[in-house]
Amino acid sequence: MATFITKLAIRYAFLAIFLSAGVESFGINYGQVANNLPPPDKVLELLSTLNLRKTRIYDTNPQILSAFANSNIEVIVTVENEILSQLDDPEQALQWVNSRIIPYLPETKITGVQVGNEVFTDDDTTLIQHLVPAVVNIHNALAQLGYSNIKVSTPSSLAVLDESYPPSAGSFKSEISQIMYQFLNFLSNSKSPFWINAYPYFAYKDAPSGIPLNYVLFNPNAGMVDPYTNLHYDNMLYAMVDAVSFAIAKMGFKGIEVRVSETGWPSKGDADEVGATPMNAATYNRNLLRRQMASEGTPLNPRMRLEVYLFALFNEDLKPGPTSERNYGLFRPDESMTYNVGLSALATSSASTSSSSISLASSSTKIKVAPWECKSLVNWMFVYMLILTLLG
User: Fold this and answer.
1) Residues 171, 173, 176, 178, CA torsion sign
2) Which residues form the catalytic set?
């Protein structure tokens, strides 16, 4: 037993070494469709303790933006779909930026604005007509006020693609091609990324007998080779991202970076939601984190690390739909882990000790947090000493 505990501690110690420096391309979605979440200042402590430096919220919640001021957390905010029609008026867009963004700058590190969410495939088909004008107007308003560094875009679901397999066959649906061209032209001119919500879980759930589970979970597997490019894919997420890149290229654009605004795996689902288990969720997210720590790119763009935002930080009890929708969180609302994906390796001790500790907490144990100002160097030093002690 002692040997097992020692090996386990060493494993988490090495994980802490990687994470203590921060994973620059990794963020997490902070949803709020719940009535039992911790206050924003506690969420800030949790993110900072785990050395997660990027988050995305689905509105411009003033409590969150105020609480995150003077922290090292970068925040992407969202324009709600419901107000898109107002923002195709430049004056309304300027007013929105002045009231929702400017009061929090520069103390809060707002790095991006997502105009709507999955607008291209929203059930309300009238929204799409307002998307590009709203995106352009928000961008122009930010530039007018001296914040052209804040990138403006919109996240899309994979349903924007007419074809996605093999990746080289990627193409956008013809019915959205005109507006998609306008949007891509904006991204190209403003050097903004194309964001995609990509969930291998959905593909597996719909065809569990036809898709190898290891392929969607990033586990070792034979993978697939695109017959037209000879590129080898050992996981579905990278194939999804490259399918979008091929679709963009077919529209005549180059140099637009594709980033993942959402991906994740539910830890619980209904009887017909195949694969929604804590084990699969932990495996998917842990393997994704390892890829992020390695700063991997996709087979099509191996030298460009793929930026990914995991969904989600918390389980959200008020989300509608199937059970899975309320069970994507790494954490429960009481800040205990839904399952241990490895991020707990960065948990620090109380402020009174001012030192780091490795959390080997079970899923029912809360992570202890320390002030966000705790430096990564402390983690490195402690982990080094811990390894020496364990191996000595």
Assistant:
1) positive
2) 118, 262
